[in-house]
Amino acid sequence: MVPHSSIDSIAQAMYWLVPGRTLFLFLYLLGIACFAFIVARHLAPLVRAERDSRFDRPLLRLGRVLQFWLGQWRHPRYKLAGIVHILIFFAFLVLITRAFSLLVLGISDSFEGAFLSGSAGRLYDTVKDYAASVVLICMVIAGVRRGIFKPARYAVPAKYGKDPAAKAVFLVAMIGVLMVADGLFEASKAVWLFRQGLPAQLVAPLSLPWVLKHALGSASLTALWNLHLSAYLVYDAVFLFLLCYRPFSAQFHIETSLFAVYFSKLDRGTLKPVRWGVSEEHLDRVKSFGVKTFEDFTWKNMLDFYTCADCGRCSDQCPANAVGRPLSPRFFTIKAREYSLQHYPVLGRSNTGDPLIGGIYSEDEIWSCTTCGACEAECPLLVEYIDKIVDLRRGMVDDGNVPQSLQKPLKALESRGNPFGKMEKKRADWAKAAGVPIVNGAATVRERSLDTLYFVDSVTSYDDRAQAIGRATARILDRAGVKFGILGAAEKDSGHEVRRFGEEMLFLALRDHNAGAIQASGVRRIVTADPHAYNALKHDYKDLPPVEHISEVIARAVKSGDIKLNPVENAGDSYAYHDPCYLGRHNGIYDAPRDVLDAIPGLKRVEMARCRDRSFCCGGGGLALFYEPKEEERMGVQRVRMAAEAGANAIVTACPFCLVNIEDAIKVAGMEGKMTAIDLTELVDRQMAG
Amino acid sequence: MEILVCAKRVPDTSENEIELNGARNDIERDDLVYSVNEPDNYAVEEALQIVDRVGGKVTVVTVGSDEDEEILRREMAMGAHHGVLISDDAFSGSDGRGIAAILKAFVQTKHYDLILTGVQADDGCAQVGGMLAAMLDYPFASLVTSIEVLEGGKLKIGREIEGGNKEINAIDLPCVLSIQTGINEPRYVGMRGIRQVASVPIPTLGTPELGVDPETVGDRAAKVKRVDYFVPPAGRGAEMLQGSREETIDKLMDLLKAKGGLN
Asked: Does the beta-carbon distance from B14 to A408 stay under 8 Å?
């Protein structure tokens, strides 16, 4: 490499007798062709995938891109990693232009400065010098974290593969090399020009190129020029290597994240239909339900698999993972990605059609999910899990592959309308003492001028402990002046968990029955104290009167003064509110229950470290009560300990399943006498004045 | 292998509260929900697994009335290839021997290599399988917990014997086996499966088709008759173990050992 006497051109420089332009043109064409081919192969399964409905509401989707992609909304939830990521993200955005103009230099002299000249160009040069410096510092921090401190969140258990640290550090190091090569390229040129008395480029003070510039102060002209050319070659080579290597790694999200966020799910609390584009009436014509092979996933599901950055936040939040169940949302996705890479290899034929259950997933793994949504609330890239888990369950149900522990309750739901197999005529027994009217068609509603239906659902109707919630709810509605009734024997299970456990047809039967009874009654609104029923009525049912959770009704009645609350008797008690998954995360009701608690004079309320959208599932509702998971500890036991750590001696919740699970967990944890559990309705009922 | 499974529709004990009727000669049947007798369901699953391995067809048969057709559909949704309803006014009130005679007549209209029954019906006496085998002059094994098809028209079967032990027998085909629960994990039958077989025709056979003499079956021919139904009086209350957790666990272990619950 000999410095061209006066022209500082990469394109015209000679690399081992090859002109730069020829060399780089060849490299670019090769790199881009490889990248295009690799990406095309990666996208091959998306073409064979099931359809998905992701092209509606473009403005809302753009908003999500602004918030979650450009705005990096969820990153600061993990402080250090989040801030480092935000810095890298914005620095990369800045450096895209730099990378492009650098690459063009290899084949054309005239292009440089063509689109950023004058003061804008100078400003950009300064900003990009700092951006590169920030990236380098961030890479050092990331490398030290991943290579030396190794946060537990990134660890890969032996059953899922190798320790990822080496790969992570390698990728981080490559980006570091890219930044240093860019810095050397710029610094060597600046010193070279300066030595020859030519107008030197501006280098931002204290930036990476600036430091390098000062380090190169004494180098010879030849050395500088050689360094300049070498740095360029290294930059190009590493850039193209990363371009083609990233699609095989977690860093593919650099390319896919924008699309993943744009096409992300917009409606929380809902489930995807069995097949997009197939109406319920035509479901009988669908040959196979759910996901059985990889190609049964939708293209967005597959895009999710490629997009996962392997950051481990989902599994860090997942309660199933925390109690040692065989489910980790992170590896749920990673395993699917690896399946895709193996079965759609870049070279060689695609081979498809392997069953996923018994292949990459185990049955217990898929039944272990409580659909609490903690993973989805955390994922910075809005990767979805619940729809995929439910689709896999639909596939298992379709194949008759259902744990024995769930078959009995499912059968009972079919024949009796509740999972306990109790008789329909006893569904309203709890309400007899409370004198709650039974809504029996529109006639009773008119006679008694009722306008509200209290949808009780199965657990509150039949479970001895949960029935107290029903009676408390009835007294509260009375006090709030609500004219209400219940469906009694005509009510069946809402089917919320039936649907989430994959039994779509049984869910539809339950839904049609309930919806018919509700519509026939002519009530104008529905109240429920069960968040699972609330979510079902609100999101899974159609054409119903408005639905409210009892906490919203109480909050309003307390505010308006219809319900007055006595001071707590024991001012020494500390209450922690436990957010039920289907009230909080899935429906965003966090404040109404807290407002009610804060309206009780003298009540001391503490927050658990994991609260609101980071609430920790109690173990799950509905059919989850019957499932016998493989686990080291109950979720509820961990939750009770979290409440104790927060200094609480009472856990208030607003869900019959949470109450039942947490009360059991208090006993299992041996904390009887030290901790109590109470439902919000019971507490309000107890505190209602006169 | 052509396999016949004899199944019965019974009140589901897990979903009903069984009460006596006013006349004390039967249970109150107004509000009952029915399902296929649980051991029969295991028998169908076992038959399906056998034909998955060695080929063949599974037929499920029940003796009853039109209402009993629902269990045939359920078992067909599970994968059984054919369902047959045996129904005739002349059959009502048959005792176990009568049912066995009816089934014998049905078996003789076709050829079956293997006949399975559940070990017993929830509301039955565990007698039909054995009687059917005797009437057909087939070998019989009860309480079967594993089946392996051997060469040369034989089966290797495991049987549950007292104390949780198991014995292995070889048995010649054709034969009758009564299947114990736990032999397998029956697959789930969803609403979708039932809907898919909802319109499959199920033949109904009566005395003319089977060639059964009405005088030999039914109420009048029954030699075993139910004379009373009663709910056993509640025994003495449960014994509550007192003491610390460790002490109660030790006491419980001693009791279980003493009563033969632990070996």
From this structure: yes
**Residue ranges per domain, chain B?**
2-221
Report the residue of chain B nearest A412, measured CA to CA.
B15
> Please, what is the angle between helix A680-687 and helix A550-560, to 10°?
30
Cβ–Cβ below 8 Å for B187 and A411: no
Tokens representing A90? 């914005």
Q: Which of A284, A412, A424 is the closest to B195 by Cβ?
A: A284
d(C-alpha B92, C-alpha B144), whole Å: 29
What tokens were used for A512? 């049609």
Tell me which residue has tokens 């005797």: B134
Over residues A461-514, the pLDDT tens digits come to 999 999 999 999 999 999 999 999 999 999 999 999 999 999 999 999 999 999
| Amino acid letter, residue A299 | W
User: Which positions in chain B touch A416 (Cβ < 8 Å)?
Assistant: 15, 33
B118 touching A (Cβ < 8 Å): no
Residues of chain A with C-beta less than 8 angstroms from the C-beta of B9: none
Q: What is the DSSP letter of A361?
A: B
Chain B positions touching A512 (Cβ under 8 A) are: none
CA–CA–CA angle B53, B157, B119 (5° rounding): 100
Q: Are strands B140-150 and B154-161 parallel, antiparallel or unpaired?
A: antiparallel
B70 touches A: beta carbon within 8 Å: no
Q: Which DSSP symbol is given to A19?
A: E
Residue-wise DSSP of B145-157: EEEEEETTTEEEE
The distance from CA A372 to its chain's CA centroid, rounded to whole angstroms, is 11
Helices (H), A71-163: 79-105, 118-144
DSSP string, B171-224: EESSEEEEEPTTSS-PPP--HHHHHHTTTS---EE-HHHHT--GGGSHHHH-S-
Please report residues of A whose CB lies closer than 8 A to that of B187.
Answer: 399-402
- Taking the Cβ of residue A627 and every Cβ of chain B, the question of whether any pair is shorter than 8 Å is answered with no
Q: Which two tokens stand for residue A333?
A: 């996705």
Q: Please indicate whether, in this complex, the C-beta atoms of B191 and A506 are within 8 angstroms of each other.
A: yes
Residues of A in Cβ contact (< 8 Å) with B15: 411-412, 415-416, 421-422
CB contact under 8 A, A415 and B189: no
State the CATH class of domain B2-221: alpha beta
- Residue A101 makes CB contacts below 8 A (sequence gap 6+) with A111, A112, A115, A116
Q: Mind listing the pLDDT tens digit for each residue in A497-556? A: 999 999 999 999 999 999 999 999 889 999 999 999 999 999 999 999 999 999 999 999
Helix (H, G, I), strand (E, B) or coil at B114: strand
The dihedral region occupied by A53, where left means phi > 0, alpha psi between -120 and 50, and beta the remainder, is beta
CB A493 within 8 A of CB A422: no
In which element (H, E) is residue A389 found? helix A386-398
A242's enclosing H/E stretch is helix A221-245
By the 8 A CB rule, do A104 and A116 touch?
Answer: no
The CA-based angle A299-A301-A302, given to 5 degrees, is: 65
CA distances for A322 relative to A332, A414, A445, A653, angstroms = 15, 33, 48, 21
